Amino acid sequence: MNRGLRLAFDINTFLTFMAFILLVLRPTLLPAAVGVHVDKSGYFMGYMLGAAEWGLAAMTFFGRKLTDVAALRVISIACIVFHVSSAAVMVSTFFNGGSDFALGLWVNVLIPRGGISLLCAYFGLFKTSASYGTVK
């Protein structure tokens, strides 16, 4: 695995595991950071998103040891899909008036979601080659 992809996986593992912890222990904290208010009836959705975040964290954590290019590309694509789709939902929330803190929302879209997606696309798809592992 190249160093750039390892860095992308390390960052993703840390951020998604922290999101899991926060969404389960304090389900209103992360939504409030982007201007979305959640009452107790919405906690379940936070718990479910937290569980998905934990799964993604586990995938990138254990994926750091892989050398198979096809497997690394699949993990990269999964990260890209997860972060781009969540960014699209956040942008939609903004344009539909669901957020009252635009700066927090846009920072969350651009830095972690856009950053991890770009790192995974560049280092996981563009920069990987047969020299980094086996391809069948």
Order of helices and strands: HHHHH
Roughly what fraction of the amino acids lie in strands?
Answer: under 5%
| Count of discrete alpha- or pi-helical segments spanning 4 or more residues | 5
| Domain module count | 1
| Helical proportion, percent range | over 70%
- What is the CA–CA distance across the termini? 17 Å
Low-confidence stretches: none
Structural class: mainly alpha
Query: What is the number of strand segments?
Result: 0
Let me know the largest β-sheet.
Answer: none
Average pLDDT, all residues: 91
Describe the structure.
- The chain is an all-alpha fold.
- It has one domain.
- The protein is about 75% helix and about 0% strand.
- It has 5 helices and no strands.
- The longest helix has 27 residues.
- The protein starts with a helix and ends in a 10-residue tail after the last helix.
Comma- or semicolon-separated keywords:
single chain, 136 residues
Q: Secondary structure elements and their pairing?
A:
Layout: H1 3-25, H2 29-33, H3 43-63, H4 69-95, H5 102-126
Helix pairs in contact: 1-3, 1-5, 3-4, 4-5
Summed up:
The chain is mainly alpha-helical and 136 residues long.
